[in-house]
Amino acid sequence: MVRAALDEFAILGELEDIVPFGKGHINDTFVSTWNQGGTRLRYTHQRINSQVFTRPAGVMENILRVTAHVREKLRAQGAKDWSRRVLTVIPAKDGKPWVRDAEGGWWRSYCFIENARGGDLASSPEEAALLGKSVGDFQKQLADLGSPRLHETIPGFHNMGARYARFHQALREDAFDRAGGCRGEIEFLLQNEERGSLLIDSLRDGRIPERICHNDTKMNNILLDDTSGQALCLIDLDTVMPGTSLFDLGDLIRTVSTRAQEDEQDLSKVKFDTAFFRAILEGYFSEARSFLLPAEYALICESGRNITQIMGLRFLTDYLEGDHYYRVKGPLHNLERCRNQIALIRSMDSRWEEAEKIVKALS
Ligand code: ADP
Ligand code: GN1
Ligand code: MG
């Protein structure tokens, strides 16, 4: 199946190898190696998860517009390595940005960005600052993307109210008889329901502006250069769409201000680290200061807590619904992820005042 799909892309040379790749939870990713007149070149291929992205053509239309816009910006800045700093879509032989397989699946291909890595944890505050800067830069580059509005590839993606409605339904149905084993987690999420809507309500009421954002800025969606350690490129562009700057900053805080991975089971390791938090903000502000508004600054601490909460909620909902959304390693994986996110929220809460002071000092 993979082989047949690859044959339809406009890639020259002899195919030498195809291997599954990466640790994404959503799409099926492969890397292929080709011999092109004696030079080896690699490409990334993804079968888009069409349960999650029900309109893949809209996803690809967004990605083509966004990558073209960023590419122009990089060229205008005279960036020498622009082809490593933005994804390049490889068209199919028929010119479309996708290939359909015999089972109706949707495939796309990108140039593989060599000598780069997407880690799960930041190794130092310096690295956290580079990650923050790359997210600020991405938002800045897209601030003047013209009309039409990008497609909402997953409607209500960060809509806490809609996520809670689904959670309540999963709880009522308890189709896999799992709710009894996670009463504490359910209770925590119910207690935090109202506060969780702060970001989405602020966006809806116009208290914070709509901006184009990435919406999935967890650390491993940002590639770092192996040699320089610099943040190179934001990948996984399926969810680039209108939202608030705080969705991206929040997801970065969720994944980069802790020293534990999102499925770490030793919860004593799940701690909000204010040195990393400060560094993320320093990097992010170095780009975003030019456009951020006071109302956005005011919700920065809340953004980290909020995106951590929505992930905890989504992991637990998926657990209650029988693990059909996220790729899991075992029957408790989603529950473990949820416990981890709740532990992170508790740790954020315990250092709230300190975090607020950091935001104030840097704003
Ligand atoms: P998912 O939506 O499943 O998370 P991603 O688009 O994040 O899929 O891709 C999964 C992984 O594949 C990434 O974490 C990254 O390691 C790798 N990857 C994807 N695209 C590229 C690329 N163009 N160059 C290098 N690595 C890539
Ligand atoms: C998914 O695709 P991936 O693995 O980069 C998810 C994010 C979650 C993340 C949690 C489209 O991201 O929303 O934050 O898992 N992406 C989608 O690790 O649902
Ligand atoms: Mg990803």
Report what the structure shows.
It is a single chain. By secondary structure, the chain is an alpha+beta fold. The protein folds into 2 domains: 2-114, Phosphorylase Kinase, domain 1 (2-Layer Sandwich); 125-362, Aminoglycoside phosphotransferase (APH), C-terminal lobe (Aminoglycoside 3'-phosphotransferase, Chain: A, domain 2). 45% of the residues lie in helices and 14% in strands. It is built from 14 helices and 11 strands. It has helices at 2-7, 56-76, 82-85, 125-142, 160-173, 183-191, 193-196, 198-204, 245-256, 274-288, 294-297, 300-320, 333-350, 352-362, and strands at 14-20, 28-36, 39-48, 89-90, 99-100, 106-111, 116-117, 211-213, 222-225, 231-234, 241-243. Strands 1, 2, 3, 4, 5 and 6 form a 6-stranded antiparallel sheet that branches. Strands 7-9-10 form a 3-stranded antiparallel sheet, covered by helices on one side. Strands 8-11 form a two-stranded antiparallel sheet. Helix 5 runs parallel beside helix 12 (300-320) and helix 9 (245-256) crosses helix 12 (300-320). The radius of gyration is 20 Å and the shape is globular. Bound molecules: adenosine-5'-diphosphate, 2-acetamido-2-deoxy-1-O-phosphono-alpha-D-glucopyranose (GN1) and magnesium ion (MG).
Low-confidence stretches: none
Helix content: 40-55%
- The residue-averaged pLDDT reads 97
State the helix count. Answer: 14
Concise description?
The protein is an alpha+beta fold and 363 residues long. It has helices at residues 2-7, 56-76, 82-85, 125-142, 160-173, 183-191, 193-196, 198-204, 245-256, 274-288, 294-297, 300-320, 333-350, 352-362; strands at 14-20, 28-36, 39-48, 89-90, 99-100, 106-111, 116-117, 211-213, 222-225, 231-234, 241-243. The protein folds into 2 domains: 2-114, 2-Layer Sandwich (Phosphorylase Kinase, domain 1); 125-362, Aminoglycoside phosphotransferase (APH), C-terminal lobe (Aminoglycoside 3'-phosphotransferase, Chain: A, domain 2, Alpha-Beta Complex).
